[in-house]
Amino acid sequence: MERRMNHDSGLDNYDLKILRTLAQEGRMSWRDLAEKIGLSLTPTLRRVRRLEDEGYIRGYTANLDEKRLAGPMIVFVSVTVERQISDVLEVFETRVAQLPEVMGGYLMTGGADYLLRVVVRDLDHYQTLLEVLTRVPGVANIQSSFALKAFVNRPAPMVGAG
User: What are the start and end residues of each CATH 1.10.10.10 domain in the chain?
Assistant: First the structure.
């Protein structure tokens, strides 16, 4: 029986195969999953339940077409706030999280305080969003970078690769 452990997480090769397979095809039947990883159904289900209970699997979602739903243009927006105090940061995060164009938001180290990943239909749509962002209290500076091409966009980390 294959039981090589991943030293970082305590996961063995079967666990890693389950995670990789479900990250690629979350709608796969349990029987197909068991066949793909090389275990029978009962131990496969036991492992999936344990991975769910331990928080390695947080849920199952559909991979939606971002371009068709939100727009084809990806923009990375660096935002600097006037002061890094909790009130300003909370207001900014609350307001920006409500904007449907914002797909990801990160508090950063370095030159800018925040990095946003934004998806828009076109430049006019981005201009409208920019007007909204500039009116958020505490925003001091905004710098935009338009993505020319995505060459990696994974739904989950590549666990146990290599």
Answer: 1-63
CB within 8 A of 28, min separation 6: which ones?
21, 22, 36
The tens digit of pLDDT for each residue in 37-94 reads 999 999 999 999 999 999 999 999 888 888 899 999 999 999 999 999 999 999 999 9
Q: Residue 91 corresponds to which tokens in the numbers above?
A: 């207001």
d(CA 76, CA 58): 27
Q: How far apart are CA 52 and CA 10, in angstroms?
A: 15
Domain 66-146 in this protein, CATH class: alpha beta
Is pLDDT above 60 for 159?
A: yes
| Interval 123-139: pLDDT, tens | 999 999 999 999 999 99
d(CA 40, CA 26): 18
Element (H, E) at 69: helix 66-69
| Distance in angstroms between the alpha carbons of the first and the last residue of the chain | 20
CATH 3.40.50.1970, domain 1-63, yes or no: no
